[in-house]
Amino acid sequence: MATFAPPPGTADIFENEARDWRFLESAARETFARYGYGELRTPIFEYTEVFQKGLGDETEVVQKEMYTFLDRGGRSLTLRPEGTAGVMRALSSTDVMNGVEQRVFYLGPMFRGERPAAGRRRQFHQIGVENVGRCAPLLDAECIAMLANFLRAVGLDGFSIAVNTRGAVADRPGAAALLHDYFAPHISGMCDDCRARLERNVWRILDCKQEKCRGIVAGAPDYVGSFGEASRLYFDEVRRALDRLGVPYHVDRNLVRGLDYYVHTVFEVTHPALGSQTAISGGGRYELYLPGEKRPVPGVGFAAGAERLLLCREAAGIRAEGDFNAKVYLVGLGADARLANLELAEKLRTAGVKVELELEDRSFKAQLRSANRSGAPIAVVRGETEIANRCAIVKNMKDGSQTTVPEDQLENFIVRQ
Ligand code: HAM
Q1: Is residue 301 within 8 Å of 84, Cβ to Cβ?
Q2: Is the CB–ligand 1 distance for residue 65 below 6 Å?
Q3: What is the tens place of the pLDDT at every residue in 135-150?
């Protein structure tokens, strides 16, 4: 049979995997609810400027990875490459500008035109949170602690949290000049990407993964020393709070994150199953301008990649638990038996029992095979004789033993099993 694969970088998720997805999602809902976060579902596409303005024109995502198209009226739309910008757009309808704190989480598909690889998809799924309207180091620490709790709730241990500070917006030019002065004389020995970054976004040189650049990056000056005192104290306080909460972390001065909206605290989480170059989650504090507003709104949040979390769970041998099999499989031979089975199935399902059955005219052997495949511990078998005698055979699928049960007691008998 011909099979048609979905487009590169996308995937079909069948029930046996969907269970693990549901597990992740419910762990997220439960953990985030304890911190007062409520769900926000935003559209999967937005006006393109939501991302251009939100993430910054210079970011790789905006420049190279967005799926952008025109709607019928000629307006440019983009499939969301991340969640934060759309969440902020949605929150512009609330009183977040008037100092009301908003705590929201979201789950869903995001789209980036990246080269597909293990754990890198073009349609991937993020589980994210945004705390909007407030700015305090303790909030950043709470957010990181919640991320650590969420990761533990999905069964992951041994993850590693890197944190850094990007300083305030006002700290950037001085620090960028310092980095520029350092990298400029070395730039001829660095990769093409870094050469382009030197003038456009010198920070991104710090997280270049190329071997020949790493050595040069290692000697970069301590730009945090050039930040204002308030920014340095802010970061100290984040660290003190993380220490107090017992959240494990390390400071990584080369962690700058790929999106332009970050200020102060940034963080990223890796896990040994995917190696140190692949983040399972990333986030930080940011400032974003809502449409028509002169002041930016502060926020802090993160997003975790669902596919990557599932890969880590798989590497650790963790699967969603639970009994997903039917409780009973109904085998019917002859039109009357099938109709009687359909009626019984509806009654049982109304009573909360998970039922599978064959409704097409198929052989006894084929139906027993299906009963076995269903994993149901019991099967009900009815043919013309049983219908005539107003009874059914209930078969224990494990030991093969059989009981004949009168029709009017069948439903109760099965429910009690
Ligand atoms: P990000 O680091 O671009 O941050 O993405 C967050 C997470 O999404 C990554 O750590 C990774 O697990 C997953 N991810 C990203 N791209 C892909 C891909 N192509 N395939 C599979 N997984 C992927 C953000 O998106 C920010 N909005 C996070 C944030 C929220 N910052 C503050 N609030």
Answers
A1: yes
A2: no
A3: 999 999 999 999 999 9
